[in-house]
Amino acid sequence: MNIPALQVRDLTVAYREKPVLWDIDLDVPAGVLMAIVGPNGAGKTTLLKTIMELIKPAAGHAHIFGKPYKQQRDRVGYVPQRGSVDWDFPTSVLDVVMMGRYGMLGLLQRPGQRERDMAYSALEKVGMEKFAPRQISQLSGGQQQRVFLARALVQDADLYFMDEPFQGVDATTERAIIAILQELRAAGKTVIAVHHDLQTVPEYFDWALLLNVRKIASGRVDEIFTAENLRKTYGGRIGFLDSTSTTNETVGVAAVGTD
């Protein structure tokens, strides 16, 4: 029996008694590239943070490869929303990427040549090796996003959580990022990304979760990414570019806002 990369059971999160996530059940198999999509306030970011035990749920639990996150932390990589990071912190690109290795080092162990080599290799993969000595505050938004992706790559994780990895990047950077995510999937890694551009979901992802406080649907994109399910998710507040009346057909829709 294959153990899911992520299993969520009866997960409920509330702020001041208002449900933000309600009774979520979710199974994500290993080796998929999954999008989490839903309208503003749907709980997309909250779901990631609760799985990683940054937010305490009111009920339910999540398991990473069959165990709680705290027992599997070394197997998880995380790329936060770019807007949640203090980019004025005085540190270099290389140092930011090497931070991805700190969890694998002992409390008194400093990063050495191996960690530097891994950091440079990750920066090369995202096209940022020439920027290694530069201060992160001097980078563009797309460059900063590439640096945080490199930091996740050096963790050599089995499961990656990414919160809006394409937010604020240009088309070239977006293509570079999705190519790397697809390489991770090809290597057997699992990638779960909050994503807001519904039009690219069928092109970029093979698995999806449609979320609006409750789970509307989850599974293979070609099975659940339908006009009917999207209407349930967004309450009819989306513009269809290629809607059909057949619920088994995948649809293309306009981009919508983020969580």
3D architecture notes:
The structure is a single chain. Helix 4 (113-125) packs across helix 5 (141-153). A six-stranded mixed sheet has the order 5-6-7-3-8-9, sandwiched between helices. It has a three-stranded antiparallel sheet with strand order 2-1-4, covered by helices on one side. It is an alpha/beta fold and 259 residues long. The radius of gyration is 18 Å and the shape is globular. A hairpin with a 2-residue loop joins strand 1 and strand 2 (18-28). It contains nine helices and nine strands. It has helices spanning 44-51, 69-72, 93-98, 113-125, 141-153, 171-186, 201-204, 221-224, 227-234; strands at residues 6-15, 18-28, 33-37, 59-64, 76-79, 159-163, 190-194, 207-212, 214-220.
Assess the beta-strand content as a share of residues: 15-25%
Strand order of the largest sheet: 5-6-7-3-8-9
Mean pLDDT: 85
Major sheet: size, sense and barrel closure?
A: 6 strands, mixed
**Separate helix tally:** 9
> Could you give the distance between the termini?
35 Å
Radius of gyration over alpha carbons?
18 Å
* Low-confidence region ranges: 240-250, 252-258
Helix content: 25-40%
What is the element string, with H for helices and E for strands?
A: EEEHEHEHHHEHEHEEHH
